[in-house]
């Protein structure tokens, strides 16, 4: 049995610059601005297994985050409280509890978080998703992967994905049973699911 190394980090604070540091990577910095004079606070935990990372973040206050450079990750937001508005450069995407949001990190985007917001986040390397799809579909995949930006978290693959991420974030790794459904499989099923979202 292969062992997976998991790293965990936790951050709390009140400063937009501190939050920008928490959310940024060396290759893809993020700028954070307050949208109102209200107080800002954040409480974020991140867990990484290498090609897949999970996050659990809670925010208070109106703020905007702008990605300064693209990333090679697919970003999946699973909101449990509050509202956010993503602007991937095309059509704005509202994010609310019960409806997940899938974004391609290759596009620089911004997000506005309003009042009290909590979401779970999944960050997956594009290559990992492409490899799952190649194995599942038994054919070569070229070009960009285009995902519908919404996923229903109340049923089907969306519910399985939300439960899997919640399980991974809420329970310590050493007390957690092996996942019954691999994350890539949930996402690959969503990609190939012909039903409209």
Automatic annotation (TrEMBL):
Pfam families: AraC_binding_2. Residues 29-171 form the Transcription regulator HTH AraC- type ligand binding domain. InterPro entries: AraC-bd_2. It comes from the Bacteria. Keywords: Plasmid. This is AraC family transcriptional regulatory protein. It comes from Sinorhizobium fredii (strain NBRC 101917 / NGR234). The lineage of its organism: Bacteria, Pseudomonadati, Pseudomonadota, Alphaproteobacteria, Hyphomicrobiales.
């Amino acid at each position: 049995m292969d062992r997976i190394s998991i790293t965990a980090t936790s951050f709390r604070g009140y400063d937009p610059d501190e939050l920008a540091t928490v959310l940024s990577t060396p290759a893809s910095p993020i700028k954070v601005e307050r949208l109102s004079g209200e107080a800002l606070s954040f409480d974020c935990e991140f867990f990484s297994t290498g090609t897949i990372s999970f996050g659990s973040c809670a925010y208070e206050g109106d703020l905007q985050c702008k990605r300064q450079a693209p990333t090679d990750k697919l970003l999946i937001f699973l909101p449990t409280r509050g509202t956010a508005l993503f602007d991937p450069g095309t059509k704005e995407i509202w994010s609310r509890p019960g409806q997940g949001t899938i974004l391609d990190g290759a596009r620089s985007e911004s997000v506005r978080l309003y009042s009290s917001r909590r979401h779970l986040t999944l960050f997956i390397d594009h290559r990992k998703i492409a490899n799952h799809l190649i194995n599942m579909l038994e054919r070569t995949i070229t070009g960009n992967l285009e995902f519908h930006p919404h996923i229903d978290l109340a049923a089907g693959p969306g519910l399985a994905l939300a439960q899997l991420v919640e399980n991974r974030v809420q329970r310590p790794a050493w007390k957690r049973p092996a996942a019954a459904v691999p994350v890539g499989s949930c996402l690959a099923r969503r990609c190939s699911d012909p039903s409209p979202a």
